[in-house]
Amino acid sequence: MENEQHQVSLLRSRWRGAAAVVVGLIALSLDLSGLLVPLDRFLLEARFSLQDRTADSSLVLVEVDAASIDRIGFWPLPRTVYVSAIDRLLEGQIETVAIDLDFSSRSLDREDAALTESVRRWGNRVVLATYGQRASALEETSAVISQPIAPLDTLAELATVNVFPDSDGRIWRYPVGQWVGRDFKAAIAVILAGTGNFESNDFLVDFSIDPATIPRVRLADLIAGTVSIPAGATRAIIGTTSIDAGDRLTVPVYGNISGVELQAIAYSSIVLNRMLQSTGLPVTIAGLSLLMWLCHFLIRLDWWQASVALLGVAVVIFATALALQDVAPVAVDIGAWLSAVAIWLLVTLMGRLEEQGRAIAHQHGQAVLRDALLRTVVQENFDGVLITDTEEKIEWLSPAGANLLNQPAKALVGKSLIDHVPIFALLGSEMGEANVVRREVEYRIEESDPLILEVVVGTTRVVLPPRVFWAEPVEQLFRTYIFQDVSMRRAAEKTQRLALEERERIQRAKSDFLSNMSHELRTPLNAIIGFADVIETEQMGPVGTKAYKEYAGLIGQSGTMLLEVINTILEVSRVDAGMLKTSDGEVNLADIAHWCSQLAPGFARGGKREIEVLVEYGVPIVVCDELLMRQAIINLLPNAYKFTEENGKVTVRVGSTLNGLAFIEVADDGIGIDQENLTQLFEAFYQVEGAFARRHAGSGLGLYLVRRYVDIHGAEIKIKSEPGVGTAIRIIFPLKRCRPRENRIAVNK
Questions:
Q1: Residues 445 and 508 placed together within one structural domain of the fold
Q2: How many CA atoms lie within 13 A of 268 on its CB side?
Q3: Sites in the chain below the pLDDT cut of 50
Q4: Rounded (5°) CA angle 277-280-283
Q5: I want to staple 483 with a disulfide (CB 3.0 to 4.6 A). Which of 7, 192, 455, 557 is the partner?
Q6: Dist CA 415 CA 421 (whole Å)
Q7: How many domains in the chain?
Q8: Which of 517, 552, 575 marks a domain boundary?
Q9: Overall pTM > 0.85
Q10: Domain limits at 505?
Q11: Same domain, 245 and 291
Q12: How far is 142 from 147, CA to CA, in rounded Å?
């Protein structure tokens, strides 16, 4: 088994390697065939658009624009106009002036003489343009050279201004120069730059240089002397920028610019060392090799992970090319690389489509299974289902529904609902604009008792797709009745409701009885206690026998204990009956602690206990019923005394929790309580089992009342106890009952 898995893994690895090589060869073939040139040009233009460079300020463009032509009033301009411009420029800070205009034809003699004299005076500081052009439109190979008239062609420095568009009709490259006869003439931008490290006969112009940043002056303003040459400019080029004068070229990024602006951008490319060169075939092959190695691993990923990774690789390739172009005069041809990435992405997506096809086939099978399952569930559902159309004609009735209605399903299909189940038709008419109506109705079957049916009526919209008989989707409305027999459930609910009402009646009777018996029970007990006290204290004279006096004391103690039990039971009855009225006010818990501690010594029957009151700093004022809180603490203190050995210690602590909630706590170091007894501690009449507990009388209602008092205030009661260590019961008040106060003082007693 392991050997088979190894073989499969080996085959997959070889397939990945072969696929990577095939993708690389396809991309290389596309590049060698020239099919990727448009893509490389598009990507290069995108990189130009993302960069923003400023033209070099050492060259000023003297524009023969529409405004200058309009002010001078002639076209072509008289050559004396150029003479004035040359003189003004060279007499100032400009070292070299180039004129991108055609002086190959003669003008007026005086005009030609003036220009010749100016050029002779300034020598080769003046650069004039020479052009190479076709001899005719039909002869593509033959060319004629147009150069300035004699003697301008010998007096001035001559430079070529020819540029050649690529297959897309746009100018991308700038030639370093051109052969004119047997002489090689440098391009006008090269001569103006004066220097340059040229590795080939041409270079890619850096069209990230913005033409709008070229320093400019108008020819008319220069001649009129109303404008000064920008500071730092040492070169000047004169040419037409007017659209009407022609000489427009299509370039990347900027669309249509004038020929003289292209010369200025080429000049800045040379001076700023931005003469871009393409990377060529070796770099393309090296990049494809790296991509083939990388894609060999990417194909192991899930389709979406591989797609994200490939898109990330494409972004990295473009960003790297952009960064290299930004720091160095290099234009990386990344078309082949991105094509390889795109082919890999296509392979990945094709694999995903194959998986999707298998998944769709599987889902179709699952859908058929679910449809059969749903039909089975609906058919065998215990709830009845009845469907009608918009005209209340019965379309379908489930078997369970037929059993409940005691009517055959097939016989009802196509029949009117109001004729066979009128109570359902009545519910449908009550819907109005509601989407769902839920009602309980009585449905009688012949002589038997009526059924109570719970009916849910809803509207269902079904959209039928286009078919031969209708061109648009058709929406049909159906009304669905889902019903079930709830007769037994309603009978049970009625029985339960009657039982609850009877229980409430008995509870009210008990509470009324205890309340009414309060006076009858307390009056004789008070009399017994009072007369026993009179006899015991011999208020009416001495008692003849000592035993009678002791018996009278026992009668008084027993009556007092019985009265306490009765008062407690009556208090519980009053609380349970909701007859307890509270009166909230702002209370200082420290006052309650001190007041209750004053009564504590009276609880210490059978020995002395130490009591300590601790009040922390920062305890909030509490909004509560002070009388009930005192009663709660008084009910806690006897238990603390009762279950603490002689010379033990009871502590009443007032403080606040970490989140600022006030609390009051009663703690002792007595016998403690087992964990299994803590959950029942606050139940009525519950007493902790144990020999020690049995030595102390009690009704088991004190802690129950504490719990009820705490619940009335929405407070929380927590108990912590450990056998042999002691017990602590803490009452924590909610935030809404806590009020902050200033200048609190801690008191310890």
A1: no
A2: 26
A3: 1, 4-11, 137-138, 141-142, 468, 690-697, 743-749
A4: 115
A5: 455
A6: 10
A7: 5
A8: 575
A9: no
A10: 492-575
A11: no
A12: 17
